[in-house]
Amino acid sequence: METLLLDPDDVSAGAHTSELIVAVEEAFAAYERGDIKMPAKSYIDLPEYNGDFRSMPAYMKADDWDAAGIKWVNVHPDNPDDYDLPTVLGTMIYSDPTNAVPLAIMDGTTLTRKRTGAAAAVATDHLAVADASTLGIIGAGVQSYTQLEAISEVRDIETVVVSDLREEAVERFIDRFGDEFDVREGSPAEAAACDILSTVTPVEHPIVPDEAVGKHTHINAMGADAPGKHEVEDALLQRATLVIDDYEQCTHSGEINVPWSQGLLDDEDIYGELGAIVTDKLPARGEEGGPTGVTVFDSTGLAIQDVAAAHVVYEQATERDIGTPFQLVDTRV
After folding, report:
1. Helix residue ranges per DSSP H, 128-230
2. Alpha carbon distance 151, 122 (integer Å)
3. 1: pLDDT confidence band, cut at 50, 70 and 90?
4. Is there a binding annotation on residue 113?
5. Which of 68, 75, 89, 159 has the fewest CB atoms within 10 Å around its CB?
6. What is the pTM of this model?
């Protein structure tokens, strides 16, 4: 019984954005139904290297498939400048829950970028105004690319305002998407005025000003994934409709973690988890009783999203003969 080795190109080839969005939405639904097993994300903090490791195991059962997996991933902000490496590296092991065979070992870096974009698209589809056509992005790193790719699958995006302190990063983004969208550089305030805003930075001091955000803007707060990280001003979080992916993770290390620890936010300020909206337990924007003003999706990233994305990639790989099969398991009993 062979295991598939899937490199970044293989993962990209198998990670069809439209299919990833469906699978990640299935993951949120499974989460809400309780059809998952997902131990808390564990951290190994390494301040001496200005980084950390996280282990993210999970099992999930969708309507017609189930799977298990674990992602070993890091965040090392100095990597791009010091080692010419991405800030985030990851390896995903995708397993058959029936017999524990590792079906695939795949690049988790590309997988993380793709599934994070898909998660933002799921939230956007349920929380952004139906006629949203402008997208602001703060942070022009690699994650910004999959934000645009995925969000443009669920809304007819015409104009993109991208903001970053690094001119070269903005230029690369414009070069990549300038032929498909009306893309321009702007300030964080200009990006925040768009119909949809995605923030993908590692900052610990808010960069999204309350007064700049549009009356009905939907914000995907994707950058905060560790205690102390904080992209959106407290006043904005206090008045917005807050939707989270996971209560424990968000209050510990999501966008709301800082004002939460200071007592500025509590349970009454949280509208609900995205899984409840996906399964129609809570109304989405445009539905009776749903949000009408500014909405914020606090995304910390769930291991079941990785499993769902790995499922899409693996199914495509087996169908299209992508990847390199090798004998990992000793089947001698």
Report:
1. 142-154, 167-177, 188-192
2. 8
3. confident
4. no
5. 159
6. 0.94
